[in-house]
Amino acid sequence: MNNNSKIKLINRLEIYWALPAQVDSDTFERFVEKINQYYAEAEGIGCSTYLQGCFACLTAHTALLCMQTQYDKNLKRCTEYIKEQNIGIFLPKGLKVIDPFERGLRVIEILVLPVSQSHMDEEKWSKF
Fold first, then answer.
1. Chain-centroid distance, C-alpha 10
2. What angle do CA 81, 84, 87 make, to 5 degrees?
3. Where in the cell (predicted)?
4. Which of 120, 123, 117, 115 is nearest to 22 (CA)?
5. Is-above-0.70 flag for pTM?
6. CB burial class (10 A; 0-12, 13-18, 19+) of residue 97?
7. Secondary structure of residue 111 in the 3-state scheme
8. Spatial distance between the Cα atoms of 95 and 75, rounded to a whole number of angstroms
């Protein structure tokens, strides 16, 4: 598979000009690398992926209504990871990372929150 067709987000902090004062570069690079790892696992082709595809074809894709694919499982794990990191790292610093899946897997969108709103609970921000 061509390396240009894989999903890979850039992890250099200097590109995100507003962040260096709020997040250290090592933390941000580890965060993005973990997201890239989840997407690489989601796109990986293995025995289970092959069998899921065969089973879906045999059942006219109705089996996909009853089971989660490997891709869906990894996207869900990535979404949970981003939520955990938002709660643990980014929200206390006045930032919120939007899941790249919500933006077509093109960008990591980072919201800079007003200081008074950065300490709100996760329930309110999960709807945002």
1. 13
2. 150
3. Endoplasmic reticulum membrane
4. 115
5. yes
6. buried
7. strand
8. 22
